[in-house]
Structures are given as structure tokens and as C-alpha cells.
Write a structure and sequence with these properties.
The complex is a heterodimer of chains A (290) and B (298). By secondary structure, chain A is mostly helical. Chain A is built from 13 helices and no strands. Chain A has one domain: Orthogonal Bundle (MetI-like fold). Chain B is globular. Classes of the chains: A mainly alpha (290), B mainly alpha (298).
Amino acid sequence: MNSKTTSWLFLLPAIAIYGFFGAIPIAQTFWISLTDQVGIPPGNFIGLQNYVELAQDEYFINSLKNTGIWVACFLVVPNALAITIALLVKRTFWASGAIKTVFFLPLALSFAIVGVIWSWIYEPGVGLLDQLLTAMGLDFLIVEWLGPYAGNFSVIAAAAWRQTAFATVVFLAGLSAIPQELIEAAKVDGATRRQLFFRITLPLLKPASTIAVSSALIHALLATEIVLTMTRGGPFGTTEVVGYRMYMETFWNYKFGYGAAIGVVVTMMTAVLVVPYVRRMAKAQEREWS
Amino acid sequence: MTQSDANTLVHQPTQGFDRGTLFERYEAKAAGVSQTLLLLVLAAVFFMPIAGSLLTSIRTVEDITVNGAWALPSSYEWGNLGIAFTKMLPYLKASLIITLPSVFGTLLVATMSGYALSRMRFQGRIWMFLVIVSLSFVPVHTQLIPVFKLMSNLGLHDTFTAQIIVHIMRHIPFAVLIMTNFFNTVPGELREAARIDGANEWTIFRRIYVPVARPAISALIVLEFTWIWNDLLWGLVLTQGAGKKPVTVGILAFEGEYEIAYNMIASGAVIAALPTLAVFLIFQKQFIRGMTMGSVKG
């Protein structure tokens, strides 16, 4: 047996499992989105009608708007926080072990757990947040956290807590990869702290930033599990996001065709947003192989 | 005295007391202290949700309503955790039955593929790589419906098997990516040497490359365990009765059952979070290594 055949034999299990249970379903979703399928039995081909309907669907447009807010918040908040934390941890030399663990810990928790914990934090009156604010004399800040106005932002904050943990890991790794000699050399040349940060640290954090930003984008775009656990889209759909809408249309309303169309839209949005990341990975790989 | 101190003395002997330097030193120290403080405050804020849950889980509801959510327990109700554990036990078992084979399957398949991909020298290699990276980003939303349908047709709805297969499928791309990248760093001479000794591909893979890849494999095991254990969506979609539901679905049922008994809900959350928290705390190094090796998900 030559080595080429052996290589393909080694690849076979992965290709078979992913092909049958992953790749074919992707293609099927595109097809189902063009039908009026309800539940499991196949529906009739209706062309792009699901997509036309989506464009006029108030609930869908509302969820799209909320997803937009998710993306905007997620792009800035967790990443800015994580850079700050990573820099602080790096500068405060004794802040190893325990402090790092505190910042990393949310990564071990599922969105189901994060949702349950934060629902209790936001509970009006008796919840951890209201009580904390009251104790600090800041009770004028209290709003109905999971109410119609603040709801979307409160759910985002809960998810951002976990996302910050991820971004901190990434940025700390990025900071550690910066050669210390570079910093020392710049210091010897009389660079100020600000110059050090903007001219050396930040540009060299670019690979880490790409990772942190893509991850934030994907989580913001999908955000299904946390909405499902915390608010189920309520009150009055004010916390509904696109991924959750897809789940509801499919598994609650059994509109499989319509749900598939939302799935396709979500996938397209993801595809557009991760292109820079994939490109960067490919470039790095090509460099390594050549 | 260091060289630079000596220089200062030589060049500025008449200036005497250097206010500038002293002020700068003071400023740097103040900055250091304020940074430390800021870090501690951030850490405290960050830790609050977990601290609050732990605290709430061992109190009584009366204690919480009377003394407030942040008071120390008036009595330590360890029994809450016991009740939560008993109630969550079937879900914890289900999660274990789903997660362990899924992790094993993913690792087995991905290690073989990574080995093959890193050894192959064909033209379209970069495209293959691009496809795998892209697949690791595919949202579940494009696969939920057909997979649900397929599993029903195969008679696998509401089984552990369905969930295990789906988890392996979902995690293949990421794991293959990590393993390929790892095997790319292993020198090819290792293989040539074994070849000359007459070993076949499978033996070379099993006896030489798998042991060499131990750091990557252990990192992946920890990561995949956490991710698969923490999945919620597939657990909801692919199950019907309570018996096959993972603990992520279980905690929601638990929350629904206790509604405003916050101490019990917190107990449930603590019990449900314990396995992944323990794995994370024990294998933090592997977890972080895996994360930075692939850095795709989170």
C-alpha cells in the first residue's frame, strides 16, 4: 500500500463523519430554506419566498436590530476590558496565579449556568446587583434590568463577562509573545510609556486582536443559548436575537423552511465577518509551509 | 552603584537634589499602586457572580430575604447542595455518558486526520486547510434542522448515540486544525527512521506520533471536555425525556422547578458547574495552552 492511500485512509473517518452528519446537512439547510416545510415531512419548493417574507417580518427585523446591538457592544466592551486587564496583570508582577484564575474562571461555565446565575443577579429588589447598589448608596441607578428597556443590554453584559475571560487569555498570550528586548530597546531610545503602548505593544497585539475580535463577532451573532436561558426573548421580544429567532421558528413553531432561511442568513453574516480571520490564518500557514 | 548611577554623578555633580527624578519616581510608584488597586477592583467585580452564587447556595431563603443577598450565612445549609446533587444526578450521569465518548471520538478521529494532513504533500494543501478553518466557524444553525431530521429518521432521536455523533462531528474541524498544526512542527526524520526499521504507517502513528503529540492531545481533551459538557442547544433539540438530557438542560428544568427559591437555584448552578470548574482548575495550563494553540472558539 503506498503512502498516499494510507494518508487518505487516515482521513477517512473524519471525512465520513463530517460529510454525512455535517456537510450534507449544510447543503440540505440551503435546500429546505427554499421550501415551505413544516415539521419533518418535506415541503414544496417555493423559491425565495421565505426570504421575501423574512424581509417583511417585524419580529425578524426586530431580532436583527438586537443582534446589531450585540455585535456593536461585543466588539468594544469585552475586548477593551480584556486589554486593560491583560496589561494590568502583566505590569503588576505579583499578580500571577490566583488573580489570573479569577479572570479565566467564567470560561469554564456553560451559557446555561451563566444565564441562571445572572438571572438571579438581575432579580428586582432581592437580586445581587440591586442589593449591591443599595448597599453602596447607588440605588438611584437601579432599573428593571431584564425589563423592556435594559433587557438586551443586561443579557449582553452577562455574556460579555464570559467573553472578557476569553479575550483576556488571548491578549495575555499576545503580550507574552512580545519580545522583552524590543521594549527595553525602545526604552533605551527614550520612548515614553504612551509611545511604547501605541507604537510597539498595540501593533504587535494585532494577531491576538484578530482572534479576540472574530470570536466576539461570532458569539454576538449567534448568542442563542444565553438568550434562551435568561429571557427567552422577552419581554415583548425586546431581547430576541437572530439565532434565537431561528430556534423558535423551527422548534416551537415547526416552520422548518422559514427557520432554515434564518439559519442561512445567520451563516452568511458569519461568513462575511470571519473572512479577515481566515485570511490571516491562511497567510500564516502559507508562510510556515514555504 | 550601577554604571548609570555613576554617570549621573559624574555629569550632574552640582545639581544636587534632583526634583525631576524624584517626582517621576513618585509618579511611577503612585501609578503602580493605582494600577494594582484597579486590578484588584476589577478582579473583585469579576468574581462577584461566582462568589454570590456560592454564598447564596448555602443559605436559607428566609436568611436571604431578611439579611440581604450579600450577608454572611446565618446558618450553613450544606444540605441544599446535597438536595441539588440528588436531583441533578441523572443529568450529571447523562452528561458524563455523552461527553466522555464524544471527547474520545473527536480526539481519535482528529489525531489521525491531523497526522495524515501534516504528512501529505499535495498541491491543494492550503485549500484543504482553508476548508477546515472555515468549517470550524459554521454556526450550528445551518445544521440543526437536517441533523434533527436525520436522527429522527435513523431512529436515534432521544438517544445518547445521536448526541455523541453530533458532538464528534461539530468538533472535528477545530480538533483537526490543532492536531495538523502540531504535527507540522514534528520533524519528518522521525518517520523516515521508523520506516527504515520496517514499521508500517499505523505503528509509526501509534507508537511514535501519538506519544509525541501528548501536549496537544492533553490540551484538546481538556478543551473539548469543557465545550461538549457545556453544550445546551443540541441537548435541547435531540432529546425528549429527562433520561437523555445533559446537565445544561437539567439546570433549566431545576430553575423552573424552584422558581424563587434562590438558594436552591444557586445550589443547582454550583453542582452543575462543578465538573467543568474542577477540570478547569486542575488542568488550567492545558486549557490555556489549547486555547492559544488554536484560538478559534471560546
